Amino acid sequence: xxxxxxxxxxxxxxxxxxxxxxxxxxxxxxxxxxxxxxxxxxxxxxxxxxxxxxxxxxxxxxxxxxxxxxxxxxxxxxxxxxxxxxxxxxxxxxxxxxxxxxxxxxxxxxxxxxxxxxxxxxxxxxxxxxxxxxxxxxxxxxxxxxxxxxxxxxxxxxxxxxxxxxxxxxxxxxxxxxx
Length: 179
Description:
aspartyl protease; protease; hydrolase; 13% strand; globular; aspartic-type endopeptidase activity; 4 helices
């Protein structure tokens, strides 16, 4: 026996809505990748390696290449770390895409956070695959102390992770208050 047409149309509409939501957040991740890669292109064409260009008293543009992870973790490991971070980036990206698929309708904070982290991960993944290292150029400093140089992708990952933590934290607090 076939199902009524209205049930089939409802299922199709629900699937179309889910696809539209997913595409919206994947587009945000894509915008992050485009902004990241565009900024990195400008940095590599306009800056000289390790030569700071002062923008503000606490902000330089300084072109560097990082073969490690955040804070140059494993940067001097001899090359194998490139493939470790490529693999981790692919796994994390797949998990984020899967997570985005299940985001409830009307939710905004969670998918924005996931899309920012996804876009940042893909931006840095591109660098690792294409160049063997991540291009960094944002150099914040104060009285001779420099924060590790970073890029747009790193910024998106950081903002996305903070939004994710506050979103999940709010959900956890809400659940514990209901108990």
